[in-house]
Write a structure and sequence with these properties.
By secondary structure, the chain is mainly α. It folds into two domains: 191 residues, Growth Hormone, Chain: A (Up-down Bundle); 173 residues, MFS general substrate transporter like domains (Growth Hormone, Chain: A, Up-down Bundle). Helix content is 80%, strand content 0%. Helix 2 runs antiparallel to helix 8, helix 4 crosses helix 6 and helix 9 runs antiparallel to helix 13. The longest helix has 31 residues. The protein is globular and about 60 Å long. The two termini are 33 Å apart.
């Protein structure tokens, strides 16, 4: 049965320009809806009358759902194809999104967020499986551009949702509008979504091993750094530099802006500098950024430090996904979900670990530990074929 699948895969035309465009669009959709969800979290808190602790547990349901889905995405993509999996999961989370804005019972919201996370996780992994396949058929690096469109989608989603809400539109109607945009974009990119995936050989659950485990650890560290800036950057600037609470997001804004710019320019940078140097120098730049942000006595330099973290880390994860297409330890359809799961763990577990270290020592110390981890990652990546 498996050999038949492989023959069918080999008969498919080589992905070309159409598939590249569609891959960028599906990355944009995922970032667009995920960021729009973040914009309505305050409304969800009001609807459920949840306190901060309860809200934190609810948000973990979203991440938990994604973690449930990611390890099995490779097997599902191999059986049903990337296109079918992405279309079904994208339609599902677009339909769920407006429902989340009206749920007032916490038990129903738990179920809704678990499902929302599951379908987001399926889409996230499947689109990266497609990205690896499409890039392998290209004569140049294009992975950073794909991830750049996820970042652009995030900016567009947060901005669009905030603008609509600012105009006085209800969160539910705003969510419906966001979902309609996402579904229209899905129709636009449908024909370029790949109807197959490289068939994995091995277990249903993707467990990283060998070089894939190393790649996953690198992604874990980079997502940990991203989560640190997202969840603790504002707290640090407010507590250590006296920044007003209303301006606390400046650090993450600088980080996200430089990460987006870096990814959009990343493919050209990789072609000119080389993947290995991009990862090595990028990790060191991100390390330096944390050091500047933590040790500088000036607010402006601290914000610049966070910007350097974004610039340095911007292309490391895309290059790691490209490396998946070059390794032979695991099939791509298993390797991609495995490293995606490890990366997502970094986002989920990282902020909690940082909080623990900050409580025991200090927030500055916790951020400097991440800086040291990035320095280690810079040298670890020297052993990865990128």
């Amino acid at each position: 049965m498996q050999s038949t699948q492989q023959v069918n895969i080999n008969t498919h035309p080589i992905p070309a320009k159409k598939e590249q465009v569609s891959t960028r669009i599906i990355f944009f959709i995922a970032g667009f809806v995920t960021a729009a969800w973040a914009a309505i979290v305050p409304y969800v808190k009001v609807n459920t009358a949840a306190n901060d602790a309860t809200l934190g547990m609810l948000l973990l349901c979203f991440g938990g759902g994604a973690l449930i889905a990611m390890p099995v995405t490779g097997a599902l993509a191999a059986k049903y194809g990337c296109r079918r999996l992405m279309v079904i999961s994208t339609i599902a989370f677009c339909l769920l999104f407006p429902i989340l804005s009206v749920l007032s019972q916490i038990n129903l919201l738990v179920i809704g967020l678990l499902l929302f996370g599951i379908f987001i996780g399926l889409t996230d992994c499947a689109m990266n499986v497609q990205a690896v396949i499409v890039e392998k058929s290209s004569d140049r690096p294009i992975m950073s551009g794909f991830h750049g469109f996820y970042s652009v989608g995030g900016i567009a989603g947060a901005g669009t949702m905030s603008l609509i809400l600012l105009l006085g539109v209800s969160a539910t109607l705003a969510s419906i509008f966001i979902s309609i945009i996402a579904l229209v974009l899905l129709m636009v990119c449908y024909n370029g979504l790949i109807p197959y995936a490289n068939a994995p050989t091995g277990p249903l659950i993707a467990i990283p091993k060998g070089i894939v485990l190393v790649i996953g650890v690198v992604c874990f560290a980079i997502f940990l750094a991203e989560g640190a800036v997202l969840d603790w950057g504002a707290v640090f600037l407010i507590e250590h530099h006296g920044l007003k609470e209303t301006l606390g997001g400046l650090g993450f804004a600088a980080f996200a802006t430089m990460m987006t710019v870096g990814r959009l320019l990343g493919d050209k940078i990789v072609m000119r500098v080389g993947s290995a140097r991009v990862v090595f120098l990028g990790a060191l730049l991100a390390c330096l950024g944390f050091i500047i942000a933590v040790l500088s006595p000036y607010l402006v330099l601290a914000i610049i430090g966070f910007a350097l973290v974004g610039a340095g880390s911007s292309n490391i994860v895309p290059v790691m996904f490209s490396a998946v297409g070059k390794q032979k330890t695991m099939p791509e359809a298993l390797a991609v979900p495995a490293i995606s799961t490890l990366g997502y763990l970094g986002i989920l577990a990282g902020p909690a670990v940082i909080g623990f270290v900050a409580f025991q020592l200090s927030l500055a110390t916790a951020l400097l530990i991440i800086s040291a981890l990035l320095a280690v990652i810079a040298f670890v990546t020297r052993f990865i074929r990128v």
